[in-house]
Amino acid sequence: MPSLGRHGVTAIRWSAVSTVARFTLQLGAQVLLARTLGPEVFGVFAIGLLVLTFASFVSGFGFSWSLLQRTTVVDSDIRFAWTWQLLVGLLASVGVYLLAPLLAAYFREPRAEQVIEWLSLACLLTAATAPANSLLQRDLNFRAIGLIQLGSYAVGYLAVGVPMALQGRAEASLVAAWLVQAGVCLVASYALKRHAIWPLFWYSGAPAALSTGRAVFATNVVNWTLNNMDRVLIGRLLNTQALGLYNLAYNLATLPNTLLLGALQPAFMAAGAKLQTQQQRLGRIYVQMLATVLVLGLPAFMFLGLVSADLVRILYGPAWAESGWVLGILFMSMPAYVIWGLSTPVLWNTGRKHQEFILQLPLVAVGALGFYMLAGQGLRMAASVAAGLLVLRAVVIALAALRALQLRPGALLPHAGRGLLLSSLCAAAVWLGHSATSGLSSAWWSLLASGLLTLATVASALACWPVRLLGEPTIDMLLRFLPRLANMLHRCAPPRADTLGEQRG
Q1: Which ranges in 107-239 belong to alpha helices (H)?
Q2: Percent of the chain beyond pLDDT 70?
């Protein structure tokens, strides 16, 4: 079966390694900061991040994204992208700074004004970083990208943010950490991928770059709205503490996915751009990736969702207890988030870059109506609406991607069935673990019992029926990244494993 090339596999391996390292680092830093600062401070900072992410989407305008879409790149392409990326980033920074008082008034939180003003600088820093980062992605140099992200986060949060938080600097510690991280990322990216910076305002390739830019801009606005309308309305309809509780749960739930998509999506986009004329091969890669998400992602996030209350109690303490239920429902919807993220490159690489925007536009109205009517009823209802919206987006975009590749949706049903079966085993094991430790007050015992029972149950099932439970596409993906599994599969299921071994050599 044609699959990711060796270069692509190596790139994703480096992404996976850096993803695990960044996940560990980010989780540790966020736990320290959350325990030190509390939900209300996180809520104030969350308001600033809502504004920053929107402004960053606007300032991007897809100029650097166009570098990923081109089959070949010359200096004039880079200079044009750099020039306009910087100009629009500067305009966005100024705009955010000037609008800070009005935005703080909308959220009824005066403390947010200064946070927004300082974070406006990040618009310019992020925009200036984008060309070099896109060129590194284009080269599939995810080793460098991972090291930059890991190092910049360590400097920003561990060297600056955490010490400031321990000194009682509240929101300022989070703002400083974000800005330092963005600055280090800019310097390191450019140092590793130097490019022409002499201004270029127009050239023969500008119309194509602007066409891509308009599509990226419209898509970014829709995606930002769908990803953030829950927090915009929670911050307005409830209060800052509620926003802090919800934002922590949302960030923790999406952290593995954000890192995973940060590793897989650019690699898939860059590899897919080189396979635009090989639709059949692109389709096989796409199905293989979705099968892996369904078979392995569904049970993994089912387990995390069911033990989320224990995780919050252990990691963040009683002040964050209300985040537990919210985290659980969001965890269970995260496979949809990954499927959506892996489906969008298919549309772009098959000449359907406008479909992501057009197909999701009606969902903005559906989500806004749902959040407006139900978010005021509390965090749990808001989380339920957010989870439902994620699933709906994944279905819409994945169906469009399958149509673009001339694939039948039914091809994924066996893999979804495998994932649901493994998820059921996880749910039963967690229930037994919770039941066995119901008389104990420590969340550690509950989590330990649930984890061990789940691991034993799933491992036993896979040991007995590895090929039947995983399916060929998932096994193929696992073997490409973990080739030593071939021997285990050979011992557990000799006839099928032999066939797989012959196919993959």
Answers
A1: 112-138, 142-153, 162-166, 171-192, 206-237
A2: 86
Q: Does residue 66 contact residue 37 with C-beta atoms inside 8 Å?
A: no
- What are phi and psi for residue 471, nearest 5 degrees? 85, 155
Spatial distance between the Cα atoms of 445 and 177, rounded to a whole number of angstroms? 35
Say how far apart CA 349 and CA 331 lie, in whole Å: 29
| Structure confidence by residue, pLDDT tens digits, 335-371 | 998 899 888 888 877 778 788 888 998 999 998 888 8
Distance CA 443, CA 31 (A): 16
Distance (Å, whole) CA 390 – CA 409: 18
Kindly provide the b/e burial profile for residues 233-259, where b requires at least 16 CB atoms within 10 angstroms of the residue's own CB: bbbebbbbbbbbbbbbbbbbbbbbbbb
Threshold 0.85, pTM exceeds: no
Q: Which residues contact 105 (CB under 8 A, 6 or more apart)?
A: none
Question: Which of 253, 255, 256, 230 minimizes the C-alpha distance to 243?
Answer: 230
Distance CA 14, CA 134 (A): 17
Domain ranges of the chain: 1-213, 238-418
Name the residue among 144, 158, 149 with its Cα closest to residue 182: 149
DSSP string, 19-66: HHHHHHHHHHHHHHHHHHH-HHHHHHHHHHHHHHHHHHHHHHTTTTHH
Two tokens, residue 320: 């964050």
- Residue pair 261/338 in contact (Cβ under 8 Å)? The answer is yes
- CA pair distance 401, 342, nearest whole angstrom: 9
Helices then strands, each counted (H, E), the chain: 23, 0
Question: pLDDT grade, residue 172 (50/70/90)?
Answer: very high
Q: Are 314 and 34 in contact (CB under 8 A)?
A: no
For residue 387, give both structure tokens. Answer: 């989870």
Write b or e for each residue in 88-121: b if 16 or more Cβ atoms lie within 10 A of its Cβ, otherwise e. Answer: bbebbbeebbebbeebbeebebebbbbbbbbbbb
